[in-house]
Amino acid sequence: MNRKFLGVFAAAVLVMAALPGGIALAGETKTYTVGVEDLDYFPVYAVQRGQYVGYARDILDAFAKERGYHFEYKPFPINRLFATFFQGQVDFKFPDNPNWQGDMRAGKKIIYSTPVIAYIDGTLVRPELKDAGPDKIHTLGTVAGFTPWAWMDQIKSKQVILRENANFTALAQQVVAKRMDAAYASVAVVNYQLDNVLKTPGTLVFNSKLPHSKDNYFLSTLQHPEVIGEFDAWQKSHQDFLRGLKKKYGVEKGVND
Fold it and tell me: Does pTM surpass 0.85?
């Protein structure tokens, strides 16, 4: 092989390595960045001691390992994560949903996976309010960065006052202590907080008569539709594994019970 050819080959490799997602040479693992929320949303996901953990980490790592990829997880505050993703600074975003931050999505070709996790964002109350109607809710808590879309009409009309909390533990404690009437949050995440963190199971319950939404979390990308296609096929062929993992973590507790 002459020097001229070697020079051309080396230049080509450098150019390809600069492309989004880089390039994986033979025998190398291709690395992608996944933008994630710097939030304790366990059992779905959390950042603990600098490490991304939970159901989301397990499922994404299992897929990546089988495909010969490596996912590098980059945690950001919720609002910054949206900006980082839409600016193309990470390869993928999890979780995502087409209904979140709709204005920021306008004009962008975002590719979404098939559903990863089903969830209910619902209104959790003390047991004595389990059959209450919306007229009994005057103060509603949520975690900073989350929008309680199902309650927006009441919030805009000032029938309900919205109060933000730093995390789900504080949110649950505020409602249990009667400092707020209700919490609007992921039913599975609040159940985990009550059962495993606060050790007070049943002190808050999901009131299905109050505003709530049922939807799914998706993996999304602006840059790598081919990987999303691979992930969809992988999910379809690993249904037993995924059911077992969901049961282990309880990520759909109260959603698909």
Answer: no
